[in-house]
Write a structure and sequence with these properties.
Elements (H helix, E strand, L loop, with lengths): L4 E6 L4 H14 L4 E6 L12 H5 L2
Length: 57
């Protein structure tokens, strides 16, 4: 096994999963420990986010 641990960091929801996911799956199947991290604040995904918050991106 070439890698023991992999970390994929995405700036937004689904970035890490869609861009790094296939590679992480490949190495996870070889026994590597894989982690995905999203570094977005996520404030616009809240149900109570106002229209003003959504426009101030």
């Amino acid at each position: 096994m070439k890698y023991k641990r992999l970390v994929c960091i995405g700036g937004h929801h689904l970035d890490a999963e869609l861009m790094g996911g296939p590679l992480l799956i490949k190495y996870a199947m070889q026994g590597a420990h894989c982690t995905m991290i999203n570094v977005t604040e996520g404030r616009l995904d809240r149900k109570d986010a106002t229209e003003q918050e959504k426009k101030n991106i």
